[in-house]
Records
---
Amino acid sequence: MITLQSSDKDVFEIEQSILIQSGTIKNMVEDDFTFIPLPSVDTETLIKIIEYMKKHADKTDSKEKNIKEFDKDFMKKTLNELFALVFAANYLHISSLLELLYPSIADRIKDKITEAIRQIFSIRCDFTPEEERRIIMDNKWAHEGTEIEGTLD
Amino acid sequence: MDGNNDAVCDDRISKLPEPILHHILSFLHAKDAARMSTLSKVWDSTWNSLPYLDFGDIFDWSINLNVVIDQTLANRKKHKSSMQKFSLCLRHYAGLCNVGNWIKIRIACNIKELNLRVERHDYQGNFVYGSLPEAILAAKSLNVLNLFGFNIELPAYDGTINLSSLQELHLSFVFLDEQFIKAMCTSCCNLEHLSLQYFNGLTSFQVGDTLPKLKKIDLVTLEPPHSVLQLVDIAAINLEDLWINNLYGSTNVVRITACKALKSLYLRGVDVTSNWLEELFYSLQNLVKFELIRCKNQKTMKIASDRLKQLRVVDCHNLISA
């Protein structure tokens, strides 16, 4: 059994066989660590990561459909939760989870106009008005058929 | 912020490492990804260094495709970004003449995956094969190549191809001949998966033992009057999965007993005999899955193997006992 500690100092005891899906944890286990602090992963996110790894630990053929359903539901989260998962999965090197997260986040961007994306993701514009105009011209073809931003801030 | 569940309080997405942003953008069409460049400096840089470009299905763009792609390439050259994956689907043939140039630039950037699709019809509505830019067959950095709707011819100057890093080759609705298959067997020493679907021109498919990594082959033929595959002769010693699907018509001669590692075999529209089956099970000691569909000749068929885990026999008329 391996003990994981979240940034909120909560501890979780999990079987090694489940945790080796994380490349990072696998390396530490191979170096004989049994207590692994994770200062960049909070409790809420760690619980979800453990849930994911537990489900994916048993990859027999019969469970495949089950796992696909689980993955679909697992991605139904708020953007904040998805970002937390991406940071954690990246740090922990869980590539199968990352492969799920990328298209899920891309779906929230797809076909939206720029202004909507800016609002949803709270992206602040750090261009000067001239820079912004130049960038829009550089990629003019991408903006045709959609509204081009008029506001500059 | 409004009560929308999806809104975030601070700009967390821009803080993700660039490789992750690239992976996210790789699931978007180039148009959506390009629009991200106006959001902030981070996103402008992410778009310009994006190694994956998917121009998707282009049939409703009123803009000049040449200008778009020229511009995108020029940007990448300016930023010295490497190009990993490029996908383009052209419903109308007209834009294809520039593809040759673009391909050359791609290759200079060591592209890893290329997906090109053309769909062209003549005035009578018949499908017409597009002419394949020769540069593609010399892209030695390619790992995955997906071509749809092309006439695949060997380069005129020396008749050889150089796809030595190719791991997967998927050809659909293409016209090709035995020369190409031969050249492929000589050059593509790293090939793992070969898929030929709805092809025309080829009447015999022969692969020797020059492809040691080849694990999977899919063959799906067109209906007559297109060419009928009469002979299949495969001696790939590490082949594990073979799928031969004649939707119409049938293949008479199939020689695969040299594929000792074969685990899964699907044959549709292949006229097998009892003797052939006996030899098959005797030679292929690793076969665990066998499916035989629409085999017309046999009245009796003996299928005996203690290793076989899955057997499916469908639509074999005249079959009296098995």
---
Amino acid sequence: MMRFLLLFSRQGKLRLQKWFTPHTDREKKKIIRDMMLIVLNRPPRTCNFLQWRDLKIVYKRYASLYFCAGMEDQDNELLTLEVLHRYVELLDKYFGNVCELDIIFNFEKAYFILDEFLMGGEILETSRTAVGASLEDADTLQETMEEYMSRPAY
Amino acid sequence: MDTIVSSASTDLQDYTYYFVPAPWLSCKLLRLLQCYPPPEDGAVKGRLVECLETILNKAQEPPKSKKVQHSNAKNAILFEAISLIIHYDSEPNLLVRACNQLGQFLQHRETNLRYLALESMCTLASSEFSHEAVKTHIETVINALKTERDVSVRQRAADLLYAMCDRSNAKQIVAEMLSYLETADYSIREEMVLKVAILAEKYAVDYSWYVDTILNLIRIAGDYVSEEVWYRVIQIVINRDDVQGYAAKTVFEALQAPACHENMVKVGGYILGEFGNLIAGDPRSSPLVQFNLLHSKFHLCSVPTRALLLSAYIKFINLFPETKVTIQEVLRCDSQIRNSDVELQQRAVEYLKLSSIASTDVLATVLEEMPPFPERESSILAKLKKKKGPGAVSVTELDDSKREAGELNGGGERAAETAAMAASNASTPSPSADLLGIRSSAPMSAAPAAAGSLLVDVFSEAGPAAPAAAAAAAVNNDGFLRELEQPTDASEALLVEGSGDADSAPASDDPAPPLSDADDLLNKFVCKNNGVLFENQLLQIGIKSEYRQNLGKMYLFYGNKTSVQFAGFSTTVSCPGELQSQLNVQSKPVEPLVEGGAQIQQVLNIECLTDFSEAPLLNIKFRYGGALQNLTLKLPVTINKFFQPTEMASQDFFQRWKQLSQPQQEAQKIFKANHGMDTEVIKAKLLGLGSALLDNVDPNPENYVCAGVIQTKGQQVGCLLRLEPNGQAQMYRLTLRCSKESVSKRLCELLSEQF
């Protein structure tokens, strides 16, 4: 089971955080700090997995963003790498050529996509099209509501 | 699962991830399969094996796509399959194939795969079939350890070396790990140090090699050598006589190096202090030289080390009187006696006084060589486990820690299991002969009863386990033997009792006849009220009783010594024959279920109606593992329990003595002393009897005189007792005068057994 998923930039700014187990605020901050320290200090060609406390940490760097996931001991690391990749693909599909700015400005969409395919630390939906479809539905609903609300009342 | 793996990629269009069909689902299914034990049904098993083989085969094919994602997904399934194979641990050819596959990965271009391969091999190394296969890759692993750029991969390689270490390659692996230690990252040094220490200890055929290794360890990574490591090396050196001389010499040479680490000074100081005499013959390492060497490091050390060195100096004074003056000078100098640290100052002053005042004999006794340590669980292992976190203890360590025959804790748990197995065999005669055989071969008589049960079981277990473990086991058993010292006859009776019971466990519902040695037990309790009444491998019964006037309350504690619960547990107290009218025993019922390792309590209320000579019977019935257990004991309720002591002056005593002069009222017995004739012991027993010990009554001071009143519901019986010991003949004459004939007789019987 995935314990947490963090996205942060190379300068150490947190862009996205998703926690699958309860932690106090202090603990969260500590974990984030530790992760950044460890991951950002890794030399470029080292392997993507490391051991931290009793968790395995899987991280991957896409352009300027680091995707970092904390897994339990029995999980398969290569699979997690693929989970991260799948997430990036979904983001790419939705935003079209996604970059960090997209995530910064539309973070609620990013969280939405994440929730669609990861639930409770496990992967929920592996099909790209299914996730895409539900996203579209949500968007349509949102636009309808906006239109509906902005119509002048007669 | 099968369909997914063997289907063509076109079937599951949408779920295909870079040409690998449904990777996440496959992995989840494989993980699910790990949760179940391997299938027994032949057909299912066949399909499963086929499936796994297909996966392994696919790994061999050339990749369909250049993309890294494809290979990642494919390999993810592969690793999952491998961990399933490891988990099943039953198909040797699959295991070997998996091992070979991993071996190929070890040299793969991609770092990720190397990392994972090393990690998987670590778990593979613990299974027996593949251990050999893993060892063939040792060269690659060592290479990886040396040349890898990535620190986490190096760490995994070190872990793997630790896991695959066994007797044949121990020396090589330890040497490699030591050389790696010199260049290793600071963060993992401590862990590596612990691992090297554990490996060196476990596979040390030749203890001098072990000492060398540890000293090297201290030399290389002195800062990271935690306390446990050097405590352990000192324990080992002290426990093994043969290596002491060698250790002293090596330590001496090591200390001569100019830049010596503080831990080395500590170890050196201790060992030279204890065993310096073994190398004093050599002129190069004469006592004075040794002392100068140690003293030269003195000022460079921290306070605890200095304290240790001071102790070593006083030991030198004992071993080498010729150095006494020099050392005393040192101790006397201001920097010691007026040292700002209290500990050092105290030590210096005390040692100085000790050396100047005490004679050589006294000094020798005070500073006698340290006795061998009792074996305990290696604290290093404990520290390693703590360090790695609860989840990360490898399987090998758990197995090893279970296999270490010296562990008391581990031994205790296994003892429960062997007790369970032994008990289930108890009904057939031949295993019980074994039980007796094993027990009698252990040449000890037990320690106090509570600990005795645990130790006894470990001993009967330690027999078969000892050949498996290394020489360490012999050391451990020696340690045990030394620990168990004073025999107490009472506990011996218990031992005999226990094995006797294993023979006679009839599976009938009727109350079993009282055990043959029940009388011995009874005698044990004449003079005391608390203790363990009965013990066998399943059950331990303790009692605690208190009496007041003619009423008594007895608490019975039934302890379940096994880890399995007792069902249908019931106890009945019965008073046979006349006893019914003489003694009234009421008991509260107990719960029918006793959990493993639990203890339940039962309260008995006893009322003495009139004097009695029989003992009530306690019958216990329960079901253990399907077999019905039935045993009957005599409850240690004797007439003397209702004794009330009465003080009286000598005239009163003699007056009453004359009053009770009728022949029926007197009971006299002359008997040989069964135990030693120690005054204090006799006094204690008489007091335990419940009567008042009267002083200055009998003209002969050697004799013991007691008086008391036995309280029953109906009447009170006055009792006077005179015990005359005859030291030269080792005999006693016991005279009892009571107002009731039966009481005298009974008390006489009881007491003659006690002395």
